[in-house]
Specification:
CATH topology of the largest domain: FAD/NAD(P)-binding domain
Strand order of the largest sheet: 6-7-5-16-17-18-15-19
Bound molecules: glycine
Shape: globular
Radius of gyration: 21 Å
Amino acid sequence: MPLPSDIVVVGAGIVGCAVAYELARRGASVQVVDGRRPVGMGATQASAGVLAPYIEADERNRVLFDLAVRSLHLYDSFISRVVSDSGVAVRYQRTGTLEVTTSDERMATLRNVAARLEAQGLPLGLFDGRAARAEEPFLSGDVVGGLLVPAHGFVSAGELTRALAAAARSHGAQLIEGSHVQRIEEVDGDLVVETDRGPLTGNAVVLAAGSWSGQIEIVGLAASVPIRPVRGQLLRVMWNGPPLRRVIWGERCYLVPWDDGTLLVGATVEEAGFDERTTVAGVRDLLDAACDLVPSVWTAGFIGARAGLRPASADQLPIIGPSQVLPNLLYATGHYRNGVLLAPLTAQLVADAMLDNRIDPALEATGPRRFGRL
Ligand code: GLY
């Protein structure tokens, strides 16, 4: 079968836009379609953009850990390429994370994590409470210690997604917003993507519709793609005084300091179906957690709250790989808490597989086959 050259990407969140950009940059003709407008209006718009594999991907889950670390390593060059191809500025910082705790038991765990990561050669700092407060003077007196990972950082997920869309367009990609995808079907060797505003045809499709991936009918599939939404609420407050120096990560929330004086406070983890509303409970829990960690959040101005639906598979690994049912349908979905972090690597794995028939060994574990005949 000839390699595809004419590809429809379903979903214009950070993963869909990254995939579309990479495919277009490597010469494919690409259409990106999404039911919402502008780009990044699903989970992406409620992401704090934290890039922290050594916190979020436990190294005992080797597959996620390896993917996340590989993707972090791609980030510097990914950002400079996207900014240069798009002309769109993207705020991106690698100022590290300080994971802190108020419990001696958790501190013992952080010491074990530090020992394991140090053995892998990762630069780290392990602090007692006083040293942690020397690093971040606003931390609560209850903090008993923390683990600094200088390699971590954060990026504006919204700016990056808009830059990716612009960069994809600069390589000829076409963006179709406000068209809801209903069905994907093979017709005479092509793949037809049926939308409420008419069909799109390509010789391949990438399904990157996040939490909505399972709502798209794939003709020939006995069941829908097993992805469920997990709501995350995120707050934005206006910080008073000298900024925090880096992301502060606690057991009940994390804080992301922007150089415009705002602070993001994330995030709830809730089974709320497709309900994308913010709630009093979510806002209150996050504010309580933030004030416990950094008491002067109490005096911050409240700007607002957002909610997004993280796409989770049953084993919380992304689903990246070709369908066994429709030749030339490839999944790039289910990134759960790590869509922003995993976007550069996902784009590379998808483009390698589709355009060069290079199947990265990682796709063995991320492929859809683990959930049956998809
Ligand atoms: N990656 C952070 C979150 O999902 O809340």
